[in-house]
Amino acid sequence: MSTTVLPRVNYLNVRTTVASWLLTKDHKRIGVLYMIVVALAFFLGSIFAAGVRIELTTPAGDFVSADTYNRLFTMHAVFMVFFVLIPVVPAILGNFAMPLMIGAKDVAFPTLNLMSWYIFVIGFLFTIAALVLGGVDTGWTFYTPYSSNVSASNVLLAGLGVFITGFSSILTGLNFMVTIHRMRAPGMTWFRLPLFVWALYATSLVMILGTPVVAITLFMVVLERAFGFGIFDPRLGGDPVLFQHLFWFYSHPAVYIMILPPMGVISEVVACFSRKNLFGYSFVAFSSLAIAVFGFLVWAHHLFVAGISPYSAMIFSFLSFAVAIPSAVKTFNWTATLYQGAIWWRAPLMWVFGFIGLFLVGGLTGLFLASLGLDVHLHDTYFVVAHFHYIMVGGAIMGFFAGLHYWWPKMTGRLYSNALATSAAVLVFVGFNLTFGPQFILGYLGMPRRYHAYPDEFQVLNVLSSAGASILAAGYTLIACYLLYSLWKGEEAGANPWLATGLEWKTESPPSPHNFEETPIVNEGAYEYSKREIKVA
Amino acid sequence: MPDGIAAHADPHGHAHHPALQHHFQTLDQQHEAATLGMWVFLVTEVMFFGGLLTAYLLYRVWYPEAWSEGSLDLNIALGGFNTVVLIASSLTMALAVRSSQIGAQRATVGWLLATMALGLTFLGVKVIEYAEKFELHHVPGPNFVYEGPHGRQVEIFFSLYFGLTGLHALHMIVGVCLLSVITFMASRRRFSPAWYTPVEVSGLYWHFVDIVWIFLFPLLYLVDRAHQFA
Predict the structure, then answer these.
(1) Which of B11, B51, B153 has its CB closest to that of A246?
(2) How far is residue B174's CA from residue A505's CA, in Å, rounded to a whole number?
(3) Cα–Cα distance for residue pair A452/A469, rounded to 1 Å
(4) What is the CATH number of the domain that holds B36?
(5) Phi first, then psi: what are they for A447, rounded to 5°?
(6) Interface confidence (ipTM) of the complex
(7) Do the domain assignments include residue B5?
(8) pLDDT of the residue at B6
(9) Do A231 and B58 touch (CB under 8 A)?
(10) Most B CBs within 10 Å: which of A8, A174, A183, as the mutation test of the B interface?
(11) pTM to 2 decimals?
C-alpha cells in the first residue's frame, strides 16, 4: 500500500489555514464544508431516531414521556429533512462534482455559493438553539393552528431556522441553473451533459419554484406566533388547511429535491460499472424534468383526509399515479443498462443495487397511498412512515453513498477498502429492510404514527424494527471508519480509478484549485464506454 | 506554490478587462450569467410573494365584505401618491441604465441618486401610513381594535396588508442599499459601455419591486372604491 504524500498543488493543500477554508470560493471546498455540517446534522438526527426506537421497543410509554417523544420525532425529522436530505446530494456532491463535470472553473457565482453555506449554517444554528432550549413538538410539518397558537415549544426558532435554510437552497438552485446554462465547456452540448447534471438542473427548478413558497408560509406562521397576526387562525375565520396546501406545495416537491440528485448519481455509477452507454439517455434526462414538473401537481395527496373536495382528490390521486411513469422510466433504463453489461463489482455499484431495490419498494407503496380508498385506511399509520423512509433513506441516502463512494477518490485522492465498503452496503441494506419492512405491516395492521405507546400485539414487529435500526447504525459507523481511515492510509487513487468517461476524471485527484489546466473541449457523449478498449478487473 | 494559481489570470498575455472574474472566459459570458441569475432570482421572488397572494385570494373570495371594509380604511391619497413615486423611480432607473450603456458617467450617478431619493420618499410615506394604522389600533395582534360588522375577518385583511406591504418595503430597503453601492461604483467610474452589468442587474431588481407595488396597490387599496366615488 503506497502512502506517499501528494506533493502536487491541489484544492486541499493549496492553503491550509482555517480562514482559507471559511473564506473559500472554490466550489470543491464548499462541497466539503457542506459535508461537515450535514454529517453533524445526520449524527444529531440519528440520536433522536435512536430515542424513538428505544421508546418503541416496549408497548408502554416508559422510556420518555409523551411530550418528550413528540419532541424526539420532530427534531429527528427537522434535522434529517432540512439539514440532511435536502442538501446531502446537491450541496455536497453537486457542488463538488458538477462544475468539474461540465468543464467549468467554478460555479457562476462563487461568492454567492459561499454565502449559501453561511446561510445554511445560520439556519442550522437557529435550529440548534431551538433544540437546546427544549426542542419542538409540532412534527416537522408545523401544522397550524397547533404550531401557530397552541404549542408551548420553540416553534419560532425552529421555524426561523428552516426559513433561513430555505434561502441557502434557493440560492444554490439559482447558482446551479445559471452554471449549467452559461458555464459549459466548448462542445458540452445539452445532450452530452452527464445525467447527474440533468438531474441537478431539474432539482434546481424545484428549488427555485418551490422553496420560496414554504419560506413565505413559515414566515406567516412566524408572524402569527411573534406578533399575533392571524392568517391561519380559525378564531378569526382563517383556514388551517390553507397552511397545509401552501406547506405541501413545497414539501411534496421537496421529496424530488431529495430523490432527483441521487437518481442522477445512479445514472453515472450504473453506466460506469456496467461499462456501457446508458440505455435511453434522453428518456432518462427528460424523465428528471417530468418528475420535477409532475411533482408540483400532486401536493394535495397529503390532504386526502383533511376534508378537501372529492373531485380535487380524484385529480390529485390520478396525478400522483402519473409520477410513477417517469420514475419507472428511470428504473427500467438502469436495469436495461445493467443487462448484458460487463458488470464490475465495486462498492459504488453495491449502493446502486441497494438504491434500486429500496426505491422500487418505496415507489410502489407510494401508489398504495395515492389510491383514495386505501389512503383512508393507511393515512397517519406506520405504513406512511415506512413508505417515505424507503424513498428518503432507501433512495436518497443510498444514492448519496453511491455517489460518495464513486467520487471519494476524486475528492480526497485516496481509495478506501473495497471489501469494507461492500460489507457496509450489505449491512445498511439488511439493517434498513429490517427497520422499515416491519413498519409496513404495523401500519397495515393499524398502528398510528407519532405515539409513544402502543397495544401489546404490535411489540414483536417493533422489536424487529428497533433491532434493524441498530444494524443500520453499525453500518453507518463502519462507513465513517473506513472513509476516515482512507484519508490517513488510503492508497493513492490516481486521476481515474474507475476508468470512467466524465470530464471530472480527466483532471488530477484531488483536482487543482482551478479544476483543469486548460479548458477541456468535448467531442462525444457522456457515456462512451463502448468506444474504449479498457479492460477492468 | 500560490504561483500556480496566479498563472491562470493571464495565460496568453492578453490584457483582461479588470471587471472580468477569473472563472469566466469573456465579459459577455459574465454579463449573460449575471442577468440570467437575476431573472431566475426574480422568479423565486414571484413565488415568494405568490404564497401571500394565494392567501389573499382565498380570503377575499370568502370574506368580500371584510375586504371592502378593510380596504376603505386604507389611505388612498398616500397610496396613490406612492404609486406615482414608484413609477417615476422606474423611469429614472431606466435612464440610469441607459446612461451607463452609453458611457455618460455623471448622468448615471445623477439618475441613480434620483431613483434612491424616490425610493426613500416611498418609504417615508409608508412610515406615515403605518403610524396612522398603529394609532388606530389596526395593527393585527393582541391590541387590534376594529369596530365593524366583520371585525375579525378585517384582522385577516390587515394581517395580509402588513405582510404584503411590509415584505415589499423590506425589498425597497434592500433596493436602496443596493443602489447606494452601485452609485458609489458609478461615481468611481467603474462602468463603461463595455461593462455596465451591475447597473442593469440592479435595474431589473428595482423594476421588479415596482411591479410588485403595481399589483399591491389595486389589490389592497382599490377593492371597493367604486361605491365611494359613485
Answers:
(1) B51
(2) 42
(3) 17
(4) 1.20.120.80
(5) -75, 120
(6) 0.93
(7) no
(8) 39
(9) no
(10) A174
(11) 0.94
